[in-house]
C-alpha cells in the first residue's frame, strides 16, 4: 500500500466558525422566549457543531497523519498546524523525523567461526507513512528486530581480520562493511516504508573467551610481517654491498669468505640489538 496525499481544511477558520455557531445557538436559546421549536433547533445545531469539532487535529512539523475511514486507507495529511477533516475519519500520527539507535552487543561467529561481539548504529526515518502503518504491526519494533537480524547475517559473511590481499574483513574495511550493512537493511526495511540513511559498526571485538588467544595471534602475525620486511631489506642491502665491492675492486673474496661476509652482514642487519664489533688487527685471513 503506497502513500498518497489527502487534502484537508485549515483548522483555525473552521474552529472560529464553530465557535460563532455555538455562540449563536446559546443566544438563540437565551432569547427563545419560551418557543420550544427554536430551543430544539438551536440545541440540535449546537450538537452537530460539537460533533464536527471532532474532525479537528494537529499535525506537527515532520509529522504525517495517516487517515482511514472504517478501516480503509483514505490518504495522508502532511500539512502542518491545526487541520480539519471528516469527523468519521481515524487519524494515526507518524513521525517523519530522522531517528537513530544503537543495537545491543551481539555475540556471533564470523566467517572463520571465531566468536565476536558486534554492535551497530542505525540512522533511519519513515518515508512512506502508509506502508509503515499498514504493512507491519509496529514499525519501530520491526526496525529494531530486522536491524539486529541484518547485522548478524552480515557479520557471519566476513572474517574478523584480513587473511589475504584484497579480502574484505570486518576490522580493516569499515567503509565497505557499512555499505554492505546498509544494503542488507534496505532490503529488509523497504516493505515498512523505512529508509536507512546510515549504518556503521560501533563496537567490534573478539568474544572474551578467545580475546587473549586472538591477541597473541595478532601479535605473532605482526612480528612475522615485520621480520619478513627486515629480512627482505637486509638481503637487498647485502646484494648492494657485494655489488659495490666487486665493482670498485676494493677487495676480492672467494666463495667461502663471501658467504661469511653475507652471514655477518645479515646478523648485523637483522639483529634486535646493536652489534658489538670485533676489530681484527692481524691478517685479513
UniProtKB/TrEMBL annotation:
It is found in: Membrane. The keyword Cell inner membrane does not apply. InterPro entries: Band_7 (IPR001107), Band_7/SPFH_dom_sf (IPR036013). It is a single-pass membrane protein. This is SPFH domain-containing protein. The keyword Nucleus does not apply. Residues 54-218 form the Band domain. One of its GO terms (cellular component) is membrane. Keywords: Membrane, Transmembrane, Transmembrane helix. The chain crosses the membrane at residues 12-30, 36-59. Pfam families: Band_7 (PF01145). SMART domains: PHB. Gene3D superfamilies: Band 7 domain. PANTHER family: BAND 7 DOMAIN-CONTAINING PROTEIN, MEMBRANE PROTEIN-RELATED. It comes from Luteimonas deserti.
Amino acid at each position: 500500500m503506497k502513500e498518497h496525499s489527502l487534502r484537508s481544511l485549515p483548522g483555525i477558520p473552521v474552529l472560529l466558525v464553530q465557535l460563532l455557531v455555538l455562540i449563536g445557538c446559546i443566544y438563540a436559546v437565551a432569547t427563545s422566549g419560551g418557543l420550544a421549536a427554536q430551543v430544539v433547533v438551536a440545541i440540535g445545531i449546537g450538537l452537530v457543531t460539537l460533533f464536527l469539532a471532532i474532525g479537528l487535529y494537529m499535525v506537527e512539523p515532520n509529522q504525517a497523519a495517516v487517515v482511514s475511514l472504517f478501516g480503509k486507507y483514505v490518504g495522508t495529511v502532511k500539512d502542518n498546524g491545526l487541520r480539519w477533516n471528516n469527523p468519521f475519519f481515524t487519524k494515526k500520527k507518524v513521525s517523519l523525523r530522522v531517528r537513530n539507535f544503537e543495537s545491543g552487543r551481539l555475540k556471533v561467529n564470523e566467517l572463520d567461526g571465531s566468536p565476536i561481539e558486534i554492535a551497530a548504529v542505525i540512522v533511519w526515518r519513515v518515508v512512506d507513512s502508509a506502508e509503515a502503518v499498514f504493512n507491519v504491526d509496529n514499525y519501530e519494533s520491526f526496525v529494531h528486530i530486522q536491524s539486529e537480524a541484518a547485522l548478524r547475517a552480515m557479520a557471519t559473511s566476513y572474517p574478523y581480520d584480513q587473511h589475504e590481499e584484497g579480502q574484505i574483513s570486518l576490522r580493516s574495511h569499515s567503509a565497505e562493511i557499512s555499505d554492505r550493512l546498509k544494503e542488507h537493511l534496505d532490503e529488509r526495511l523497504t516493505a515498512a516504508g523505512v529508509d536507512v540513511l546510515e549504518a556503521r559498526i560501533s563496537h567490534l571485538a573478539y568474544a572474551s573467551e578467545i580475546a587473549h588467544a586472538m591477541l597473541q595471534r595478532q601479535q605473532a602475525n605482526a612480528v612475522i610481517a615485520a621480520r619478513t620486511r627486515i629480512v627482505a631489506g637486509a638481503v637487498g642491502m647485502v646484494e648492494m654491498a657485494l655489488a659495490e665491492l666487486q665493482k670498485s675492486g676494493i677487495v676480492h673474496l672467494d666463495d667461502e669468505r663471501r658467504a661469511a661476509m653475507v652471514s655477518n652482514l645479515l646478523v648485523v642487519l637483522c639483529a634486535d640489538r646493536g652489534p658489538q664489533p670485533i676489530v681484527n688487527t692481524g691478517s685479513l685471513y
